[in-house]
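DDE Tnp4 domain-containing protein
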Amino acid sequence: MSRVRFDALLQEVGPRLVHFGTHRYPISPSQRLAVTLRLLATGDSHQTVAISFRLGKSTVNSIFKETAAAIWNSLHNVVLKFPTKEDWQRIAREFWSYWNFPVCLGAIDGKHVVVPSPANSDPRALPGTDTIVPPVFVGDEAFPLKPNLMRPFPGSNLDHEHKIYTYRLSRARRIAENAFGILSARWRIFRRPID
């Protein structure tokens, strides 16, 4: 992370990281942010980061929890806002346009995360038909087949229609694999189990 980006992030979250108390030498917001970013970027243990910053392990634990919460509270409405009805409709149009997969709201992969279905998600007709289907997410073979979660057909001995479906679903699903690949390359904490 460049110094300019670090400073911009510090300006956003720094006010939430100021501690007033009885500590003789309070840990500055910039050091708190640096500790948290080091944990996220390297995936190192809290003990390793504590040694490199000359802090106690329990201090690093509390710094990480407080700073991660401060980052979330400061930025979630900007970087990870919950989609509106119009956003869901745009996403479904883009999946159809880019990947030829209709009525799809997203792709999931890698980390198994519980995702609630969007409120008031209206079923739609498949393009060019009168067949009404609920909006879906697409995933790989590791996910269960559900009314709102589609996965490829198993096996390799598929008829033509099933092969086309599996090919289109796999194309649409790859964006999640690519996103997680980029995410884990940048933030190595995603390469190991997260407690």
